[in-house]
Amino acid sequence: MKNWKLAAALCASVALPSVAMATDLEVTHWWTSGGESAAVAEFAKAFDATGNHWVDGAIAGSSDTARPIIISRIMGGNPMGATQLNPGKDADELIKAGLMQDITDLATKEDWAHILRPASQLASCTVDGKVYCVPVNLHSGQWMWVNRKVFEDNGMAVPTNYNELIAAAPALQAKGIQPLSLAQGWAIGLLAGDLMVAVAGVDNYVKVYKDRDMTIAKGPEFTKVFEAIAAARQFAPADKIVPQWNEAVSLVIQGKAAANIMGDWAGGEFAVAGLVAGKDFDCLPGLGLTPVLDTGGDVFYFPKNADPAITAAQLTLASTLVTKDVQVAFNLKKGSLPMRADVDLSKANDCMKKGLEILDHSTAVFPSGSQMIDRDSLNQINDLLNEFFANTDMSVADAQAKFAAIIEAAPK
């Protein structure tokens, strides 16, 4: 679909690939919560300013719902103009099938290798030396979110880490407050992954997920992990688990739950609610135990299209997504970290400052699960962990053994 208007309205502050005609571009994504919608609107506004038009293709539900739909459309010959995915292995088969645009020339022209960081994000977009996607943010799942008012109003010390939260949990329950909110599906996998890092350590986590170290996966380090996961079950019982991650975050915002373990994108929900980090709530990287970040995030791919106007609009969008002003506007509302270090962060909130401090000055930055292991194996792990939470009769030994079997069978 084309508007056939001259694209003379290209944003003057950034250098974009030339676009002969304005073009409608359908963009699919799974950003539908309040904070996510506010953030993606910044992308749409910036792209529309180039004279093209962002046709929003939001897919309701979680990433687990959206991802198969996106891949099925591309494989089925009904591609969108651009699509969100996560860095890692999600698009490998689509690239091998020749269905994704090669945007190496644009990446080289704009020197993405030097202006985007950490290097792992662009590396996740690179296959056989060619760039197929553009990273737009750095997301980490390693955060705990605490409602300060819940503790202060009940005369309790505000916890500074996960261990202090668990110690306070019985007293919270006695007052009718849920200590830990939790959503089903991948959110349980995220909680477990955070505990793996907190209990077993970053090195052991990476050795298991990336190197498939079965001695560690079956050993005492991960026995302690599954004991910690089992302990969390009593503070987030099955009948209290909600369907969506933003619902779990909302329980903390409303003061119905004391804390939630969720990625930094939860910050966008607190922002939409008008709450201030360090005053109304605390954001604790590494669950407040060890300041760490995993290098998850979001990237955009561009399925091949026979229409040259679509191709031109795709390159314009790719370039727009990583311009300085757009990076700041989007990430401040998304709760994530910008991909560039050369942006104005004078408006950065407390949570973003904490994340940037770790990213730029710490060695405790490591790959996310999706960057180390295939999606099918991750889904199997998530299914196992959901079963472990729902079935308190499943023993730690049984859960660990099943987890180790999935790791061992995962393709390298």
Give a brief outline of the structure.
The protein has helices spanning 34-48, 63-75, 92-96, 104-109, 112-115, 119-124, 148-153, 162-174, 186-200, 202-209, 214-217, 220-233, 245-253, 266-272, 308-321, 324-334, 350-361, 369-372, 375-390, 396-409; strands at 2-6, 21-29, 53-58, 82-85, 126-127, 130-131, 133-139, 143-147, 178-181, 257-261, 281-285, 293-294, 296-301, 365-366.
Cα(first) to Cα(last) distance is 41 Å
Q: Residue-averaged pLDDT, rounded?
A: 92
Gyration radius (Cα, Å) is 21 Å
Percentage beta strand: 15-25%
Runs in which pLDDT lies below 50 for 5 or more consecutive residues are 1-20
* Computed structural class: alpha/beta
Number of self-contained structural domains: 2
Oligomer: single chain
Annotated CATH homologous superfamily of the largest domain: Periplasmic binding protein-like II
The CATH architecture name of the largest domain reads 3-Layer(aba) Sandwich
Apparent shape: globular
Largest sheet: 6 strands, mixed
